[in-house]
Structure formats: structure tokens, C-alpha cells
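User: I'll paste a sequence; please echo it back and then give the predicted structure.

Assistant: Echoing your sequence first, then the prediction.
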Amino acid sequence: MGEKLRIAGWISVGVVAGALTTVSLQTVARGSMSPLPLEELQQLAAVFDMVKSDYVEPVDEKKLITDAISGMVASLDPHSQYFDKKSYKEFREGTSGQFVGVGIEITQEDGLIKIVSPIEGSPAYRAGLKTNDLITKIDDTAVKGLALNEAVKRMRGEPNTKVILTVFRKDENRTFPVTIVREQIRTQSVRGKVIEPGYAWVRLSQFQERTVEDFVAKIDEIYKQEPQLKGLVLDLRNDPGGLLDAAVAVSTAFLPEKVTVVSTNGQLAESKFTFKASPEFYQRRSGPDPLKKLPAALKSIPLVVLVNEGSASASEIVAGALQDHKRATIMGSQTFGKGSVQTVRPLGPDTGLKLTTARYYTPSGRSIQAKGIVPDVMVDETEEGSPFAVLRMREADLEKHLNSGQGDEKPNPEREKAREEARKRLEEEAKKPAAERKAPELGSDKDFPLMQALNQLKGRPVMVSKTQTERKEEKTSN
């Protein structure tokens, strides 16, 4: 396995924009190729020549070629993608958990950018920006009406460059400019705490390069505070994925040695592989096994894993492994259903191709592609239910999505009807004051699924969902 990893490179289950998540496996190029369709390639060359010579105005040759590549790859499925220089850089930043920017977690509120939290030690933190501050301008650009990802792009940039944020602080009723110098930021993918004597909560927001080290450090911190831990909640809600080796490591922390965590299967020989709960399957560099620092009790402590429709890829791998080995009770909502594997191959120093090459399977052989992990206990987001869950994008909603490869495809004529009802309810909800629409903070005593997970660990009654049912894979329309 160690030799294979040296040849293959790194393995990741990474993030693309929005709900699109990917499983990625970087490998060497194939040793053999099938014969090329010469007639079709000649037609492609002829079209290129006609566009170049006959189009109404001059066109960029390189752009024509890259657009042709992008179109070819995009026609396959939602996760295959051509990376130009910019998108390749963003892809690598997404898996490393590092980027150059100001260091704030943000959301949108009333068309403005709202600071959820400044990252501790970041330029924004040192500049005194606070939770709930609203950003109204980025340099000379008004934020009102700006898409969230566009605002992110404007705040990111090169190290040691300046950006001026105009901030409105509600509680002080004042607007003021803040000049911030961008620098390298490392995001924090692991949070956790002892929520009451004997019980702890650990949340993974994404699987990144430092997630395993941060996870081990957080568990160590919790056990120092509460040596007699009776139960743990592993929170994977809205975790869109990340590095596969990190997912294998987190699964290994709770599983017996050398059991299967996940397997992959595709056309290429290197895509047929089984990852086990052992260091050689998750260590990317030489040195001591980071999991050796974990307390032995973690292998047997009562465990609940929280998931929802936003749990995808790597988080589904962890949930599936712990469920199949009966190591944890999975609670929440059926997950996103991202179970395909992409291979990322460099095409040059700063461009690459991400191509779907396999599906992945849980230890029992289940494909979760376009279906997801079905919780052992269905739990709603609130005591009143999950009225807007049906509106969330999932793998089966993506155009040209792969099927599971295991049949069980059924149309769902009721889904659009349920979505229309949810949309109407959402419109009514939007009319309420912002304070009434605020969702409870994850990890707080107002976090309904977390409170139900605690009840499960304590052997108390759990308020099971009365409306959720298992979602079957729906027929693809491509």
C-alpha cells in the first residue's frame, strides 16, 4: 500500500462550488490508450479552423481549445471538470484548508455580507471585526446584490495586499472603514467541547490536510477535561467532504484495526482498491501514526454520528463505515449521496483534469451514489420538523448524475409537490423579522438534533421524525 501511494500521489474527497462534492484520486497517466477516432478529430480541427478564420471577430485560440475541453468533460457528469489556472489553484486551496485573505467566516443577510466569526489570530480578528458585523462595501464595490462567492473572491488576493472593508456594526449603530492586509489563513475544520459532565461533541466541518492532527488534539483536550467520558457525538452535518485519507483516519480512530473502511471500483486497475483501518492507508508522510496519541477508550466509547442532507462524500464514507461495523448510531436525515470517485491528473504546471473514474462502496458493499446514507434513527432539524429540507440540492438532483450501479431506481412524483409547498412556506418565513428566522447555533443547548443524540447516548427517549422516510434513488434524466 505504501508503494502504491508513492506512485499514485494524494487521495482526496474534495469540495467544488455549492453542493457539488467530489472524491478525488491523483494517479499516473494510463500506460495504454485506445485507437483515436481520426475522422471525428479531423472534424474538430476543421471546426476550429473555420471559427478561427471565419468568425465575425478575432477569437483567442487558447480559449477556443480550453472551452472545447471544458465542454467535452462537463458533458459527462456533474463532477468531471477541466481546471484552468485559477480553478486549479482554488481546488488545491480547498483541500489544504489554506488561502490568502482576511480571515472571516461569512454568510448573507438582507443582501449584505454578515460576519459569522473572525478566525482567531487572522488579520480580521486583529483588526477588531466582530461576529454579526455587516460588510457593506469591499474596496469601492457595494456588497448589496453581490453573490456570496463573488464577495469571497474580492476579499481574497495576494499576500501583503490591502483591502478596505466598510463595516456596519448594528449594536453601535455606526459605519466605519477597516483597512486589512491579506495574509495566509488556515481554516479550522474541527470544533468540539464537553457539553455536559460525561458527554462531548466534536464537529468536523470539512476533511482537510490538518483535520486528523486537529481532531486528535481536540479529543486529547476533551479527555483532559473529562477523563470519564461516557459518550461522544461526532457531528458531520453539512460537511461536504475533503481529503479521503482524513476520512479513513477519522473512521480508524473508532474502528477495530484493519477492518475495511471503504472500497472503490472502476475501469482502471488502480481504481479497484480497498482502504482499511491501518496507518498505511491514511498516512501521507513518514513519521509516527497521529492516531497513536488517542486514548484507547475511543475505540469503545458509545458513539452517535449526526448527519443531514448536506453531509457528502468523505463524511458519508465515515458514516457508512461506522454504520456497517455497528460502531455508531447514525442519526439525522438521509445524506447527500455523493459516491463517485474522481481522478485528478495534471495537464501542465498549473492546469489539470478531474475525471470520474469509479464509485465507492461502504464496507458491506453498498453504493451510496445518488442515494446516500440512511440514518438508523431519523431525526428532524427542529421539534416542529424539517420543513425546508426538501429544497436542499442533493446528488440525485444534479443533471447527468451517475446512478448507483446497483439498480433500485424509482421516480418520485411527490417530490416536486413537496418542494412547491416548502417554497411557499419559505416565502412566508422570509417575511418574519431576522431574529425570528435565526437558526440555533450548532453545539448549543438549542440544537435539537444534538439534544436527541444526547438522549440516545443516555438511553432516554428520542423524538424520532414522524415525516421522514427512506429516499430511494431516482431515475437519472440524461
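The chain has three domains: 2-30+41-96, 98-186, 190-338+361-458. The mean pLDDT is 83.
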